[in-house]
Amino acid sequence: MSSLAMKQDPSNFDVSRIRQDFPILSREVHGKPLVYLDTAASAQRPLAVIEAVEDFYKNHNANVHRGVHLLSQEATDLYEQARLDLARYINAGSDREIVFTRGTTEAINLVAQAYARPLLKEGDEIIVSRMEHHSNIVPWQLVCEQTGATLRVAEINERGEIILDQLEAMLSERVKLIGVVAVSNALGTINPVSEITAMAAKFGIPVLVDGAQAMPHTKVDVKALGCDFFCMSGHKMYGPTGIGALWAKKDHLEAMPPWQGGGEMIRQVSFDRTVYNDVPAKFEAGTPNIAGAVGLGAAVRYLEGVGMENIAAWEQHLLQVGTERFQQIDGLRIIGTAKHKASVISFTLEGVHPHDLGTVIDHYGIALRTGHHCTMPAMDFFGVPATARASFGLYNTPEEIEAAAGAIEASRKMFV
Ligand code: PLP
Questions:
Q1: Looking at the domain assignment, is residue 5 inside a domain?
Q2: Are residues 144 and 265 in the same domain?
């Protein structure tokens, strides 16, 4: 993934033009220009997304799939167009392989309950890495409690990289699924997903990829990754909240029983027997987040327009500038120093609790995330309860990094 980024020249990236696409970036916070360094938690939305959602509600709003009237047909077309956009974007075999969900969390829970739960039994194993987000840990703990299977942990090294030979040694016929994050939200590590899927393939083990942080930073090709399931969230990739998707190989989706029951997921219902709908409708019970899907389709087209290679190159540039600058700050320790990293810098500051730092630098207009980032096992590994995290998106600039570094230095003087 990172090699792609290196091929592009970041000096060709017109960040001032990009910033004009994001209206929120021109607002002030506590009387200072907003410096938004919290894109890993939720990205800001470009006008293209805001306008697509607005246009949907103003001109096409109706429920999907069930109406013969024109508005319902238009809403259905827009909703299904978003599925096509997403399928094209990640190189899915077909748009039928895309199930809309509320986001990554719901997508992983869907796989845990509809794919894993029916097949797991005592003695079976699921493997996840120590750097996983809680949403790729807890659904597996739940399904292990339900079935008697065991959750095992692939360990990481001091740089925050999965120790691949240890992972390989854990593989056996007992392992029924590996869950791995493509890009760690807490450490920035870009994991070698293709290498992991190749290892898993030797034992016929399916791999689920938590792609929440991969989608905004890098070109995702699910076929090239060789995975079985890929989960994503709209709001991490400049789209709306409350919408995301599960991509899964069609064979899996067809073999899986439905997860939730209700309207839309059925073909025919009687008290004797209910016949389920085809995929992906089988997994989309109830009225979906139609406007959210429309906005997500617009986000995909926006990212395609800017070009993922250009975005990745610009963000690698920001990562380099940010890493070099932050390393000059007294008492700052970067947590997560993997060889292949996305534009996320987690750090601690000697003598200053991350929450205090976050609160103080908010008054400089700088939005940083502080806490455990829903990755408590990774925090435990590094012996810290929390970090501060600067995460850069396509709209950030080296000047903003400098402003953040200056504010961190000024804040430290207040405490130490
Ligand atoms: N996985 C990773 C790596 C994340 O960063 C996040 C959100 O921070 C999630 C999963 C959960 O995403 P969502 O809350 O959109 O379901």
A1: no
A2: yes
Closest ligand 1 atom number to CA of residue 106: 16
Instruction: Report the C-alpha gap between 375 and 260 in whole angstroms.
Output: 28
Which atom of ligand 1 is the closest one to the Cα of 183?
A: 3
Please name the residues in contact with 49: beta carbons below 8 A apart, sequence gap of 6 or more. Answer: 238, 239, 240, 295, 298, 299, 302
Do 375 and 133 touch, CB atoms closer than 8 A? yes
Q: Report if residue 348 sits inside a domain.
A: yes
Write down the catalytic residue from 144, 227, 231, 374: 374
Provide the residue range defining the domain that includes 27.
10-39+307-415
Q: Assess whether 167 and 71 both reside in one domain.
A: yes
- The neighbouring-strand residues paired with 36 are 367
411 Cβ inside 6 Å of ligand 1: no
Contact 295, 239 (CB under 8 A): yes
Whether this model's pTM surpasses 0.85: yes
Q: Judge if 172 and 23 occupy the same domain.
A: no
Q: Pick from 304, 334, 365: which residue ends a domain?
A: 304
Residue 160 bridge partners (DSSP):
none
Distance 13 CA to ligand 1 centre (A): 28
188: its two tokens: 């920035």
Residue 265 falls inside a structural domain: yes
Summarised one tens digit per residue, pLDDT across range 352-381 is: 999 999 999 999 999 999 999 999 999 999
